[in-house]
Each structure stands twice: as C-alpha cells, then as structure tokens.
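Trying the structure run again after the queue cleared.
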Amino acid sequence: MSDRTLIVFLKEPRPGAVKTRLAAVVGPEAAAELYRALAELVLEATTPGPGEYERLVFFDPPVARRALRAWLPGVSLRAQSGGDLGERMADAFARGFARGAARVAIVGSDAPALTRETATRALAALDAADVVLGPAEDGGYYLIALREPHPELVRGVDWSTPAVLRQTLERAAAARLSVRQLEPLRDVDTLADLRGEWPALDARLRSRPGLRRTLALALALPG
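Done. Tokens:
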C-alpha cells in the first residue's frame, strides 16, 4: 500500500440529486448523465501509475453501494460518513491517514481537466507545504491535500459559494499552516462552465449522442 492516497468524492448519478443548477436548464436526466460522464472521465484520468498513490473512491449516499459497484466494478469504494460536505471530508481525511497514509488528497469528480499528474504534483508539493489547494474558477477548490488531519479547514465552510477558497485560506493562516496553490481549473456546475469546457468534452460526449445533442441545444451549438 502506498503512503500517498488520493480520495475521489462522487455521488450516485441519480436524476435530481446531482448537477441541480444544470438540471434546471437541461433537465435532471441529462444533468445526471453528464455527471456520470464527468465522473468517469476523472476516474479514468486519475488512475495512478505504478507506485504513485493509492486511489479510493468515497461515494454518497451510502445506500447507493450496490449501484456504485455495478457502475464502477473493480474500483475501491468507501461510503462517505458525516453530515455536510465538510464533515464528510474531515472523516475521509481521518480514514485515509488511519490507513497509514502520510499524505492524503481529496478531489471532486466534475473538473474535466483534472489528471493523475495534477494529483501527483499536489502530493509532491506537500514536501514544502502543510496544505495544497487546487483553486476552482468559481471560488471553491477542486483539490485539497494535507500531511496530517486538519478538520478545522473543512468544517463549517460555506460550501457551494464563492467564499470557499477564501475561508479555507483564512483558516490555514489562522492555524499557521503553509499553503501551496496549484493552477486553477473549472468545475462544471453551470451552463457557462459547460460552455467553457465544451471543446474538451465534445469529443468525449460523442459516445453519448443523445446527451451531446441535448447539451449542444442548450448551448445553442450545432448538434
């Protein structure tokens, strides 16, 4: 087992439960199918090379275990535990370190440009920093990596707001933790995000022609 762990947070891609802002525009079924495609892209792109890190997938809700096993056979699955996102992240960090990891990173499942190179650079950057953050263009972050548990960094944060990164940096400063930031990436949460990532997603979605047509129509692009 590696002493470096990458945890991918994902949800069951159920209509009405994921990508709700996009669902208001493209419909809950299309939004859920897009989330499934994004998650598969991130999982493919973060598959570790030999000796790089151990990857675990922490899913929500816990009752979706059977559905997740059917969707992602062979993937190491763990149910998320806790209340809000911060509580679940604090728990995931604690469980990652309890397994013997010396460095743990958590990423989301909806940043199409995220790769294993991003994860390895984040984990390596902990040589010189206590905290590594991958800023998202919406004011949040797509990655957080730690050398030891710091639940105060993730508990009580105003999640899904532009204040997430700022609050996290303020908490790190208050705890006198050094921080390294990676390059910003875009999460796909809104139609504007989808438009920005369309050049990268277009080819990927050709295997899902119905979804691609629905999304292209919402973006007023040729189907």
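Residues 18 and 32 are 6 Å apart (CA to CA). Worth checking whether this holds up in the mutant runs.
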